[in-house]
Amino acid sequence: MANSKLDITDFYRPFNNGNTDMYRQLLTSGWVNHPNDPGRTADLLGFSDGVLDFRNSFEGFKLSIIKVIENDRDIAVHIAMTGIQVKNFAEIVPKHEPITFYGFDRHLLTEDLSQIQETWHFEDFSNLY
Q1: What is the secondary structure of 25-88 as a DSSP string?
Q2: Engineering a disulfide at 107: which of 56, 75, 102, 121 sits with its beta carbon 3.0 to 4.6 angstroms away?
Q3: Angle CA 56–100–52, to nearest 5
Q4: CA–CA distance from 18 to each of 51, 53, 113 (Å)?
Q5: Residue 16: Cβ within 10 Å count
Q6: Distance between CA atoms of 23 and 45, rounded to whole angstroms?
């Protein structure tokens, strides 16, 4: 990213590779996920577990970044997710067919722009129904 000291795409890598350990460096110790994932805490541990559940629910899961917009400490990211839902996810029964759905995240960086302090997210799961 042009203005920040971190590469925001690092936040999304674990969705594709399953390595959530990198969140320890990327997120502050008090990082908060808004809203927390269903049945998960709004902290790093709850989010990491949610990422792994997400990956396990979709065969061939891939997250792609469509667009990134920066404004000082705020970074907005539009994402696309694809895969075949093979397990129940967010109380949605799988159809076992290829699907694409979208999300939008807003990340607030620390004052020195080196870590993510808070994240707000929205996923449109309507294509899963």
Answers
A1: HHEEEEEEEESPPTTS-SSHHHHHHHHHHHHHHEEEEEEEEEEEEEETTEEEEEEEEEEEE-S-
A2: 75
A3: 20
A4: 8, 10, 25
A5: 12
A6: 10
| CA dist 58 → 88, 99, 102, 114 (Å) | 9, 10, 14, 31
Measured at the CA of 93, the angle between CA 90 and CA 96, to 5 degrees, comes to 120
- Phi, psi angle pair for 91, to nearest 5°: 65, 20
The per-residue pLDDT for range 33-61, each reduced to its tens digit, is 999 887 889 999 999 999 999 899 999 99
Residues 6+ positions from 8 with CB-CB distance below 8 Å: 1, 68, 75, 77, 107
